[in-house]
Structures are given as structure tokens and as C-alpha cells.
Amino acid sequence: MIYRFGSFSFDTEKCELRSGGAAVPIEPQVFSLLQLLIENRERLLSRDEIVERVWNGRIVSDAAISSRIKSARRALGDDGEAQRYIRTVPKRGFRFVGEVEGPVAPTVAEARPAEAPASRPSIAVLPFAAVGEQARAMADALPHDLITELSCLRWLFVIARGSSFRFRGAEADAATVREALKVRYCLTGSVEMDERSMTLIVELCDTADGGVVWSERYRARAEAVHELREEIVQSIVSALELQIPHHEVRQARLKAPDQLDAWAAYHLGLHQMYRFDRQGNTQAAAMFERAIALEPTFARAHAALSFTHFENAFLRFADDAARARDDARRCAETGLEHDPLDPFCNLVMGRVSWLSGDLDASLPWLERSIRLNPSFAQAKYSLAWAETLMGAGARGQANTDEAMQLSPLDPMTYAMRGVRAFTHVVLDEPSQAAEWAELAARTPGAHALIEMIAAISHTLNGDDERARRWAGSALARQPGLNSADFFAAFPFREDAARARVSQALARLGV
User: Fold this and answer.
1) pLDDT for 143-188, tens place per residue?
2) Using CB atoms within 10 A of its CB, is residue 429 exposed (0-12), middle (13-18) or buried (19+)?
3) Inter-residue contact 413 to 401 (CB < 8 Å)
4) CA neighbor of 328 nearest in space, from 344, 346, 312
5) Segment 182-236, tens digit of pLDDT
6) Rg of the chain on CA atoms, in Å
7) Are 184 and 121 in contact (CB under 8 A)?
8) Burial of 326 from C-beta contacts in 10 A (0-12 / 13-18 / 19+)
9) Is the pTM of this model over 0.70?
10) Which residues, in sequence order, are bridge partners of residue 88?
11) CA-CA distance, 198 to 194, in Å (whole number)?
């Protein structure tokens, strides 16, 4: 539903705040705070209630609450003096005081997804079954949190709580859910709680055939349930971001080439793109171009095409790296024109800046990508890459570790491990660098540059035999690779780290 006030429209299902038709960037937690204030505008909300509803009861400081209120006001063009929309009642709480119209149903134009081909995946999250009286609240709370977080994914259509929760207590099979809600996927679960622990079992089902696509079990101590609730939700969202696209690829392969729609072509392209070789990249680009021909405003297809041009420049697949870099930027900009709030579009725009060595320019795009989707592991890893090359090894480690935790089966795991090795190079920890680089080079999907990271790390650690072996493999896969190519791909800004890498490459004869 949509609320309107002043020049703003506030869409609770698409997690969008717009002003005069233009999207206003806003963090998910700030969006939740605004939604709470707007939906309860007839009364004052205490700080305790805000903490319970927005922070799920976790202990937070007054400064954290004030920071989110300030961010909400900034998004609305408000401030602490004017208080046109959000009023502070000292020592008591906050209230939304703007004149609000709604909630109203969106118009046809507003209801149409920003980037979406009509075939994009759709999901219903049903209320979980509760085993035991203590589990009832959590059986509703977790699906509610999941609906909120999944609704912020631009590629996934999520059925609103009011519709999916109509199946509370019903023994609805996949076919019934598909017929009633017109969705391709259904997420169900059960929560069991006692005085000592909570056990959560979740299951993702394909409603077309009732088959289980993915399932997982989570356990938590009873006293830590609320503390871990956000972590569990983020883990499930990250798993769905991986499992649904993989299932889409499997389904697309069953179709005849002339029956592929834009979304199926896009997912087949992703599968080829993550091979990270010349042939796969060429095939991926062709699929993305087909998706764009079928759906010209498909923002993610433009972003993915940018990704293939990035690979052409980064891995020297293209003879003209400068042209590939320009093509990567053009496609990224086109994707952002069609959907400026898509995290993937923001990610590829950030990656384009690396190709010209402008790490500073990449940071705002990567940070925005994470704000739009805090579960986006590839954005976390990409930010870690930029931070590490700029000399912030400790921050790079933290973001790389979080990326690997969010997506332990990510197709770019080898790259995440390679960045983790680089963090130790920056911190002058050669033994740890060698350990992570060896692991990265042995991970499926690792390309020649990752093998060269292993060669450098082993050189710095004094293991010349392993270093020569990895350097030889890298040069066999990418003949002519030299130190200039390596620093074009990894533009180290931190002088000491760059000097160490340069000396290692010289010892290797690269």
C-alpha cells in the first residue's frame, strides 16, 4: 500500500520512498522506522516501542535512535528545528505529524515493477508452524521479517503479508498456494521452542511441481533467540539469493532456445558469466543482449552486460581494453537509468571505477549497494577489495569475512579468498597471505590473476617452489601477463604493499 504526504509517496510493499516521482535513497532500517511512525501517526511512539519494533528489542543507544531519526528527517527534507514531519516530544518519544493520505492501492503505473520482465521470480512467505506455546510469536515474527527483507530485493516479487498470512494454520499444498497467489516459489517453516532452545526448519518449494528447492535447519539458545533473529533472517535471505537463481537456470535449460523469455535468458547468462573464461563470457554477453532485446528496460540485464565488459577488460579477454572499459560504464549507466535502486546496478557501477584505478569513486557506489541490500555478499566483497587496495587491510578482512559468511557457496568464493590473502599482504603477514592465497587458487573458478596472487604470496612467504608453480600455471593460462597488467587489475594505493608485490613479481620474472 502507498501513503502520500507533501511531495512524497511511501510504498510499503516495494520499500520505496519517492519525491515527485523520483526515488529517494533510504536505508532499510530507516525505512522501517518511517513506516512505523507513519502507520502509527495518530499516537506518540516511545523510544522503547521503537527499539522493540525496529531493532527487535536489542539494546541500542539513544545516539543510534537519534541517528536514524536524523536520517529519516534528512530523507524527507526535514530537520530537528522545523520538525515538519517527525516531531520530537522531549523525554517521551516521537510522532509523525505530516498530513497523510492513505493507505491507498497503487495505480497501474505505480504497481508495475521498476525493472521487471513479467516473468521474474515470485515468492510467498507463509506463517511458520509453531510447535509449543512459546514458539507462536516467533512463528509470525520471522516470516514478517523475511517479507520485509525480501521485498527490498529488486529482482524478486514478494507477496504481501496480508495475502500470504491468509494461509495461517491451513494445510495448503504447493498447488493451492500457486493457484491462489500466482507465485513460483513458497517458503514455509516450523519453529519449536522450549526453555532451553529454539529450532527453526525452513523449506523453499517450487509451486509448479511441489519439489523442494532448498531447506535448512537453524538452532539457537533460548536466551539468544532475539539477539540472533536478524542473523538468521539475513542467512535465509542470502541463501534464497543463491538458490532461486540456480533453480531458475535449471528450469531455463529445459526450454527450447526460441521459448526463452528475458528472465530465463538472463539467468542462463549468469551461469555462463561466472565461469570466468573467454568462451563463457562471450556466451553470457549474448544471453544478456537477448534479454535486453526482449525487455529493453530490464535493468539487471544491462548491469550483467556491464559485468561481462568488465571481465573483458579485467582479464584481457578483449584486444581493446579501453573500449571494454567504456562499454562497461555505458551498460552500468543504462542499468541505473532503468532502476537506480537495484543493488546489482550500483555494484557494477562501482566496479567500473576500478578499471581506471579510481578507487575513491568506487566506494560510494559499493556502499550504496550494501545499503540497498545488506545481504549482498558480492557488494561486501567488492568493498573489501577496494578498501584493501587503499591500504585498509583490517576493514577489508572484516568485510571479506562477512561476505563469505553471507554466501558460503558463492560463485566468486575464490575471489573473496583472494582478497582475504591481499589483506594479509597489506598487513605484512606473509604466512597468512600464503595460506589464503593457496586456498583461493585451488577454489573452483579461480582464474590466472588469482593464481598469480598465490605466486606472489608464496614468494613473500619464502616458498619459492610453490610460487614458481603457480606463476607458471598463471602464465600458461594468460600468456604475456606482466606486472603492468597485474597492477592495472589491482591498483594498490598503499605504497609499502605495492612495493612488496612489485618485488615479488620481479623475483618471479613477471
Assistant:
1) 988 988 888 777 888 887 777 877 765 556 788 888 888 899 999 9
2) middle
3) no
4) 312
5) 899 999 999 998 888 889 999 999 998 889 999 999 988 877 777 778 888 888 9
6) 24
7) yes
8) middle
9) no
10) 94
11) 7
